[in-house]
Amino acid sequence: TELGVERRFVPESCPRAVRPGDFVRYHYLGAFPDGTRFDSSYDRGSTFNVFVGKGQLIAGMDQALVGMCVNERRFVKIPPQLAYGSEGVPGVIPPNAVLHFDVLLIDLWNSEDEVQVQTYFKPEKCPRTVQVSDFVRYHYNGTFLDGTLFDSSHNRMRTYDTYVGIGWLIPGMDQGLLGMCVGEKRIITIPPFLAYGEDGDGKKIPGQASLVFDVVLLDLHNPKDGIAIENQLVPESCERRSQTGDFLRYHYNGTLLDGTLFDSSYSRNRTYDTYVGKGYVIAGMDEGLLGVCTGERRRIIIPPHLGYGEEGRGKIPGSAVLVFDIHVVDFHNPSDSVSITVHYKPSNCTVLSKKGDYLKYHYNASLLDGTLLDSTHSLGKTYNIVLGSGQVVLGMDMGLQDMCVGERRTVVIPPHLGYGEDGVEGEVPGSAVLVFDIELLELVSGLPEGYMFVWNGEVSPNLFEEIDQNHDGEVLLEEFSEYIQTQVDTGKGKLAPGFDFEKIVKNMFTNQDRDGNGKVTAEEFKLKDQEAKEEHDEL
């Protein structure tokens, strides 16, 4: 004679219970006391959907549902006066029948409900939150209120990408995403009238279903965004900043906005080398690399429309904001020449180095970021060259000009005057600017340009006869070499310093041996000034 309610299962968490006026979705089995089943929502494959306390149910069920939690299971005994009474339902329920219902509550909501947001993780740093018209990338698990999964972006291994607040989403999701930070995790509960309403989506979501989205925001930008630059380290000394047309060498780590690494020059152990402002890199990087100093570290945040756009590339998903942490190693401009900074010059600086001089000097060689490449000090000996003879890179030949003994200077050499794009494998990176700290220790004056040997006094009028010691009218290489050696040893003549004696003498002899037969005759033998005069007469 009385309503009987047995709570057979009550979930541990029950944030909300049914109240009169709520709309519920539930499954049930209906049977008579002898166990005979007369109805079942399971057989129809759909829940029973109804308002509670509005007379849409038999009185006993209206009472029995009040106080239920989602996922709660109740066994309900309803006497006839709270069911179908003395009339029953012809052909289904006899008069004065006691009814048993096994009820499982699936969903409940109220027409006054709003979107509920529960944040369960929020990053410490939140420089920006989702606003209307922002474009977001997020992962989600979508469930019903009873926990049944109906969709998941994780299963597709692809984020859901969309604009917020402009009608691309169901209204409840449009509201629920507002104010989120990248990296934030929240649960968004949406009543059906802010989701798919009475009809559902025609697929997995039934009509009148509350939806629960467990969301993690991975990315956020606005189509009006430009790049953002965060300076992490700017050297105290910054004599020059990069401009359009400069060539940069830099290291970088490239990540997505959620911290996922997609590329790193460090892992390849090689800088990324490129021109700036010429379209060789994505537009956002072209802009972000302007105005940097050598040694500077900065973070460049690039929206997708200045990055790889909607399509993405490789490990970079479409519509992804990119974060580059860069370290500028060096930069130069193709129009750069050698830069010379003199640190010390002796007061008695009268003899300056010139082309052809033989120089001995110490140096420390480094990259523009200070990385040491080589040092004569560590070898314990000087570096010796003939200036202007191509024994060093062109920039060093230029940087050693007009030095005096004891002078110390720094010579900065752009790569097109150094080792070029290829560098020196294992020693000098390609396209590297080189810095040499130099001290000139010794200078031996060279000969006038074009001369390998000169006399210190008057030249004998019988020079050929003196060289032709056996007076056979022919001079062999051995005779020629012995004669030159004697002139040098006695101080009568001087060879160009810094070159191998045998090579110089052989070169001089070959110049005189005009027919190439290995012998020099009196007719072939001519001094340099005589050669110049004959050429002038011919002209």
UniProtKB/TrEMBL annotation:
EC number: 5.2.1.8
Record-linked InterPro entries: EF-hand-dom_pair, EF_Hand_1_Ca_BS, EF_hand_dom, FKBP-like_isomerase, PPIase_dom_sf, PPIase_FKBP_dom
Keywords: Calcium, Endoplasmic reticulum, Glycoprotein, Isomerase, Metal-binding, Repeat, Rotamase, Signal
Main location (coarse class): endoplasmic reticulum
Residues in the signal sequence: none
GO molecular function per UniProt: calcium ion binding; peptidyl-prolyl cis-trans isomerase activity
GO cellular component labels: endoplasmic reticulum
SMART domains reported in the protein's UniProt record: EFh
Compartment(s): Endoplasmic reticulum
Chain residue ranges for the region called Disordered: 512-539
Domain called EF-hand: residue spans: 455-490, 500-535
Top-level taxon of origin: Eukaryota
Function, in words: PPIases accelerate the folding of proteins during protein synthesis.
Protein name per its UniProtKB record: peptidylprolyl isomerase
